[in-house]
Amino acid sequence: MSAGHLCLLGDANHVHVRRWAAAMLERGWRVSVVTARPQTQEGVTQQVLPPVTRSADWLWRVGAARRAIAALQPDLLHAHYISSYGYLGARCKGERPLVMTAWGSDLLVTPMHSALQRWLTGWTLRRADAITGDSADLVDAARAYRPRAELLELHWGVDLNRFAPAPWASKPGFELVSLRSWSDNYRIELILRAVAQLPGARLHLLGGGPDEACLRQLAAELGLAERAVFHGRLDDAGMRAVMDRCKLSLSLPASDATSVSLLESMACGLAVLATDLPANRQWLPAEALVPVDDLPATVARLARLQQDDAATERLGAQNAERMRREGSRDAQMDRAHALYLRLLKR
Fold this sequence. Notes:
Elements: E1 4-9, H1 15-26, E2 29-35, E3 44-48, H2 62-72, E4 76-80, H3 82-92, E5 98-101, H4 105-108, H5 115-125, E6 130-133, H6 136-143, E7 150-153, E8 175-178, H7 188-195, E9 202-206, H8 212-221, E10 228-232, H9 236-245, E11 248-251, H10 260-267, E12 271-275, H11 278-281, E13 289-290, H12 295-307, H13 309-326, H14 329-345
Parallel strand pairs: 1-2, 1-4, 2-3, 4-5, 5-6, 6-7, 8-9, 8-11, 9-10, 11-12, 12-13
Helix pairs in contact: 2-3, 3-5, 7-12, 10-13
């Protein structure tokens, strides 16, 4: 028996939306996606909106979104990303329950650009029946707009069957990995400059992104041609193969909520060095945090870990244990499933 018809509003080509859809199919939901960035997924019905090339385009997608939702007739809507699909959900919900999930920048950065965007963010959030965010500071940011919705801290979680520690003794030398996108917020340039000051260290860059050409040029200028490997986007198996070689994961963005790549690194038993942001403080001890854009502090912390393998292994083991206790994606998706059922019962 179907739990009901769930319609996700989000980028169908994004791994988080795809994983969410798959998890809800497993829990008995009929799943549809309304999206401006399509990609087919087995078992999921898709309604495609006209392409979006700039932020203002979302204002002109309301009619298409309404027609798509009317064609699907779902029991419940769930919009991923407040300032785009959340706005569409607010305009199109009708009488059905509406869940919104904040992803980070949509509440922590975008509303700061103008008074109009802050007003629109508040207007959007106040039309939700439930709002989720993957860190306490993200939930607090939503609460500041005084929505009437239920607020729930719910993170993306990790597939602990796919992401698990490799034996420490099997790791060759001091190899590091970054799973973050190659764009300005994630400070890959800073990571390259830090690794350039660590003799013998080797860096693996996953993720891909628009700054690839500039970052490759910088790596060459820093003499990292033989020590920095640009892998780009990999599937879970490819990511795991790289992380099995590494001892430490770097996540140094200027702004972030709870990062799935951070949780995956922890689940694989890697030590992590991350920027001192509220979301990261929820998961990591002070010794694993550095100030944003602080190259000397980053180099100093990495150098100490390079010289003290036992301390690096200890941090990695603590991270893996934390994920075993609190990181399961299945447990988080069970909470989302229960939220949907509560809303429908109302």
